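Budget justification aside, the reviewers requested a transparent look at the raw inputs and outputs of the sequence design task funded under Objective 1. We therefore reproduce one unedited record. The lines immediately below are the structure tokens for a 427-residue chain.
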């Protein structure tokens, strides 16, 4: 089985119920001898990644993996002796035994032996070429036996991440953030650096603060400033607030003036207030805007579902801080009205905005009382400053380490045995 092709394959139990999807293969790499594959990392519902021993895989056929019915639902935690093929071996540089140079690992084949164990038997590599003193990766591809490569057990000084990211292309930012969080520090930085600015910005917003700071501080300042510009202003402000003041000031100077202006405004507010929680980029339109145009605005891909649920109506100027705030229009109301009408005719003026210094609990109470997904924030002249969305409120209400907390499996998960197939309880 080639691991890169196996990644993403659905896993089923003997009754045909889907358990999850393969995300990686765990191998034990040794300095001598072929690496032994010991299990699969399977993503099950709830974004949990669990370990399924290969001894419990009964068949791999027609794009599916069949396992025994009993799966340990405890979250997978990588041990020091373990290596993830997709996460760590793909893109690794190895030496060829024949002395012809180096190559980059593009796939790894594992094979079932008569003993019942799975071993890495072959490696699909791309030869590294040197032309005119320049290093070129796009050389000849070869499928070579495992004993024809050296240094597989040692990571190169600068390992790429193109193939790994290709395997995780379908993941949502929050899921990719989980993958990065579980990686070692060096590999996490390599993968983060390989992401484009927009994708990295989305992933950073989902990572714990320690990981965010470590990744940003490891980047060149100009790249870090570009990534901050791509983030939501409130998330960028939160991240800059975790950095030393001199570095934060330097990054703000490197950002585009308009982007930096919004972030500076947010940094002036206390963390647990409406001003500290809000984003300065909700959907803001004038009352003369047609319903059809308003619907086009809420279709923007960069909007969260919470911010897309409301259109904020204000007098010009329409960039925060706006002219006088009028009210909101709910997405459901937009869908019920003829497209040629104006939003000023259906505006809801009963939603009371909050002041920028309103405490977190006041914001939470207003959202809960009126069943809202977002709440307007205004100044003392009733100019719209921004909006607080329910996801930002939840982020501040939950414990600081909520992204890292492993909750107990719910009532619909399979039972967790006291001992895994590897002989000891995880955790």
């Amino acid at each position: 089985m080639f691991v890169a092709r196996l990644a993403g394959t659905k896993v089923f139990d003997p009754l045909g119920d889907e358990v999850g999807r393969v995300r990686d293969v765990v191998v034990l790499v040794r300095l001598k001898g072929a690496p032994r594959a010991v299990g699969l990392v399977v993503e099950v519902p709830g974004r949990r990644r669990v370990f399924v021993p290969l001894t419990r895989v009964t068949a791999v056929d027609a794009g599916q993996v069949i396992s025994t019915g009993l799966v340990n639902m405890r979250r997978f935690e990588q041990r020091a002796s373990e290596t993830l093929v997709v996460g760590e071996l793909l893109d690794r540089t190895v030496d060829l035994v024949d002395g012809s140079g180096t190559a980059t690992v593009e796939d790894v084949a594992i094979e079932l032996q008569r003993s019942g164990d799975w071993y890495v038997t072959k490696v699909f590599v791309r030869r590294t070429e040197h032309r005119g003193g320049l290093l070129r990766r796009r050389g000849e591809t070869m499928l070579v036996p495992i004993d024809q490569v050296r240094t597989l057990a040692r990571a190169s000084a600068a390992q790429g991440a193109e193939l790994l990211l290709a395997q995780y292309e379908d993941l949502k930012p929050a899921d990719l953030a989980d993958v990065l969080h579980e990686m070692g520090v060096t590999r996490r930085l390599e993968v983060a650096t390989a992401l484009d600015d927009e994708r990295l910005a989305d992933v950073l917003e989902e990572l714990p603060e320690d990981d965010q700071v470590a990744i940003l501080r490891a980047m060149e300042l100009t790249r870090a400033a570009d990534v901050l510009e791509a983030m939501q202003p409130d998330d960028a402000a939160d991240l800059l607030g975790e950095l030393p003041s001199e570095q934060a000031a330097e990054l703000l100077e490197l950002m585009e003036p308009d982007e930096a202006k919004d972030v500076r405004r947010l940094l002036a507010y206390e963390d647990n207030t409406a001003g500290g929680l809000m984003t300065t980029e909700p959907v803001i339109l004038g009352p003369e805007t047609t319903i059809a145009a308003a619907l086009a605005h809420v279709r923007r891909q960069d909007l969260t579902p919470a911010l897309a649920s409301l259109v904020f109506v204000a007098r010009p100027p329409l960039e925060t801080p706006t002219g006088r705030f009028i009210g909101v229009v709910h997405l459901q109301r937009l869908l019920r009205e003829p497209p040629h009408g104006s939003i000023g005719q259906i505006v809801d003026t009963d939603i009371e905005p909050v002041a920028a210094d309103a405490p977190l609990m006041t914001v939470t109470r207003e959202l809960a009382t009126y069943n809202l997904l977002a709440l307007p924030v205004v100044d003392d002249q009733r100019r719209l400053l921004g909006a607080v969305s329910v996801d930002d409120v939840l982020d501040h209400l939950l414990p600081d380490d909520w992204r890292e907390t492993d909750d107990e499996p719910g009532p619909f998960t399979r039972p967790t045995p006291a001992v895994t197939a590897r002989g000891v309880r995880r955790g």
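Residues 329 and 346 are 7 Å apart (CA to CA). The first strand starts at residue 10 and ends at 12. Computational costs for records of this kind are itemized in the attached budget.
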